[in-house]
Write a structure and sequence with these properties.
Strand 10, helix 11 and strand 11 form a beta-alpha-beta unit. The protein contains 18 helices and 15 strands. Strands 3-2-1-4-5-8-9 form a 7-stranded parallel sheet, with helices on both faces. A 6-stranded parallel sheet has the order 12-11-10-13-14-15, with helices on both faces. Strands 6-7 form a two-stranded antiparallel ribbon. The protein folds into 2 domains: 216 residues, Rossmann fold, CATH 3.40.50; 178 residues, Glycogen Phosphorylase B (Rossmann fold), CATH 3.40.50. With 461 residues, the chain is an alpha/beta fold.
Length: 461
C-alpha cells in the first residue's frame, strides 16, 4: 500500500506558514508524503525551514526531505501591492488560487512518481480549498495556527450581532468590552479580527469573508488548532469541536545549525558569547511596522537598560522610512546586535535570553513561554491584544507597556518595564512551569500528542 499523500494549503503569511511547516515535518516522520503549497516569494524560505524541521524531529533523517515537495503559486497581488496586507491576501487568494490548486492536484494525480493526493490540510482562512478537495473526492481538514480565543470571536459573529455588540456589517455599536462566556477573557470591540484596515469597504469584505468561513467547516470533522488545553481551557470548552494539537514546536536544543543562513548563524554565535539570562530579545514579527518616532523611543529605551540585546529589524522597516538614519543620534551601544532576521525558536531556547519584547503574535507567545522566557507585550492589532491579556492577566508570565497620551511608549517606560521584568523571579518561575506543562501536552501520552496520533490514523484510513 502506498504512503498517504497530503496536500497542505497555508495562508501565505509567515505566522500561518510556519506552524504548518512544523506539522508537515511530523507527518513526514510518520510515513506521509507532503505536497506543500507556497506563494512563490516564500519558496526558498520554506524549503530551508522544512529541512531544518525534519532535522530537528527526533528519529528523522535527511532522506525524509524527499517526502516533501513544494508547489509555488503566485499570490494574486500586483507588483504595487503590499505582500503583508492580510485583507488583500484573504481576498486575492480566495479569488485566484482555487483553479490553480485544482490544476496542481490533477498534475500530482496524473504522475506515476508522486502517488495520488489522499487528504488535504487547509488553513482556516484558505477554507475555500476544502471545496476544491470535496469536488475532487479528497478528504479534508481545517488547521488554525493561532489562539482558540481569536477563532471563537469569528465563530460568534451571529451572537455578537444578536447581542448588539456589532451591526450586520461587523461595525461595533459603540466601543465596549464583551465576553463570549463567563470564563473567557474580556475583549474590546476595537480589536475585532476584521478591523485590520481603515478602509470601510475592505473591512466589510473581510467581515463577510470571516462570516462565510462556516461553509468550509461543514466539509470536515477535523478542526485542528495550534493550542493546548493547558493554555486555553475556557476557549476550548466554548469550541468543543476544536482539536488542540499544539504547541507545534521542534526541540531546537537538539537541532543542527547547519541549515541556518549566515545571518541566523551570526545571531547564535553572538548569543554564545553573552552571560546567562542577560540578553533582551526584541522582535515584532513579519507584519508589524513601527512608526519613526516610536522606533527611536524603542532604541533609546533599549540603550538605557545598559544590557545586551538582540533586536530584529526587518529590511522593510529601514527602506520604508523617509529618514536617512532611523536610529537616534549617538546610538552605538557595543552590547547590541541588530539583524534583519533571526531563527526565533533557536534564539528563545538559548540560555542567555533574559526576556522577550514581542508584538504578541500567537506563535511568538507560545515559543516564548514554552522556553520559559518572560514576555513584555506590545500588541498592535486584533488577536495580539487577546494574547496580551492571556500573558499579563491570566497566565501572569509577563508585563505590558503603557503609552503616553500621544500613543507613544516612551524610552523611559521601556527601560522601567524591562528592568521590572528581568528582576521578577516569580514571573520567570510561573513562565517556566506553564511552559513545561504545555510542552508535556505534545509528548508521550499528552492530549495534543494523542490528538495528533488519532489524526494521523485517520489520514492512513
Amino acid at each position: 500500500m502506498s504512503s498517504p499523500h497530503i496536500i497542505v494549503v497555508p495562508l501565505p503569511i509567515a505566522g500561518h506558514v510556519n506552524p504548518l511547516v512544523q506539522f508537515s515535518a511530523k507527518l513526514v516522520k510518520n510515513g506521509m508524503r507532503v505536497s506543500f503549497i507556497v506563494a512563490d516569494y516564500y519558496y526558498n524560505r520554506v524549503m530551508s525551514a522544512i529541512a531544518a524541521e525534519i532535522q530537528g524531529e527526533e528519529d528523522c533523517h535527511v532522506g525524509l526531505q524527499s517526502q516533501v515537495k513544494l508547489h509555488s503559486i503566485p499570490d494574486g497581488l500586483g507588483p504595487e501591492d503590499d505582500k503583508n496586507d492580510m485583507p488583500k491576501l484573504f481576498l486575492s487568494t480566495s479569488a485566484s488560487w482555487p483553479a490553480m490548486l485544482e490544476k496542481i492536484i490533477q498534475e500530482i494525480n496524473g504522475s506515476d512518481r508522486e502517488g495520488k493526493v489522499t487528504a488535504m490540510i487547509a488553513d482556516l482562512h484558505m477554507g475555500w480549498a476544502l471545496e476544491v478537495a470535496d469536488k475532487m473526492g479528497i478528504k479534508g481538514s481545517i488547521f488554525w495556527p493561532s489562539s482558540a480565543a481569536f477563532l471563537a470571536v469569528e465563530f460568534s459573529i451571529p451572537n455578537l450581532i444578536d447581542q448588539k455588540v456589532i451591526d450586520n456589517d461587523g461595525v461595533p455599536i459603540g466601543r465596549q468590552t464583551f465576553q463570549l462566556s463567563p470564563s473567557m477573557i474580556r475583549m474590546d470591540t476595537e480589536h475585532l479580527p476584521w478591523n485590520l484596515n481603515n478602509d470601510l469597504v475592505t473591512r466589510k469584505k473581510v467581515f463577510d469573508f470571516f462570516f462565510n468561513i462556516g461553509r468550509a467547516l461543514k466539509l470536515t470533522n477535523w478542526w485542528l488548532c495550534n493550542t493546548s488545553s493547558e493554555l486555553e481551557p475556557a476557549a476550548l470548552t466554548l469550541l468543543p469541536n476544536l482539536v488542540p494539537i499544539g504547541p507545534l514546536m521542534t526541540p531546537y536544543k537538539k537541532a543542527s545549525r547547519q541549515h541556518l543562513s549566515e545571518e541566523g548563524l551570526s545571531c547564535l554565535n553572538w548569543l554564545d558569547q553573552q552571560p546567562a539570562r542577560s540578553v533582551i530579545y526584541v522582535a515584532f514579527g513579519s507584519l508589524t511596522f513601527v512608526e519613526y518616532k516610536q522606533f527611536q523611543e524603542l532604541a533609546l529605551g533599549l540603550e538605557l537598560t545598559r544590557k545586551p540585546y538582540l533586536w530584529v529589524v526587518p529590511s522593510s522597516v529601514i527602506t520604508s522610512t523617509k529618514f536617512s538614519n532611523i536610529y537616534p543620534d549617538g546610538f552605538n551601544n557595543s552590547l547590541r546586535k541588530i539583524v534583519g532576521w533571526a531563527p526565533q525558536q533557536m534564539v528563545l531556547s538559548h540560555p542567555t535570553i533574559a526576556c522577550f519584547v514581542t508584538h504578541c503574535g500567537w506563535n511568538s507567545i507560545v515559543e516564548g513561554l514554552c522556553n520559559g522566557v518572560p514576555l513584555l507585550c506590545w500588541p498592535f492589532v486584533a488577536e495580539q491584544f487577546y494574547a496580551k491579556t492571556y500573558v499579563s492577566d491570566v497566565w501572569k508570565i509577563g508585563l505590558a507597556f503603557e503609552s503616553c497620551e500621544n500613543g507613544i511608549v516612551s524610552g523611559g517606560e521601556i527601560k522601567n518595564k524591562l528592568e521590572q521584568l528581568v528582576s521578577n523571579e516569580d514571573m520567570r518561575e510561573r513562565c517556566s512551569k506553564l511552559g513545561e506543562m504545555t510542552m508535556k501536552s505534545i509528548q508521550g501520552d499528552g492530549q495534543s500528542s494523542n490528538n495528533i496520533s488519532k489524526f494521523i490514523q485517520w489520514l492512513k484510513e
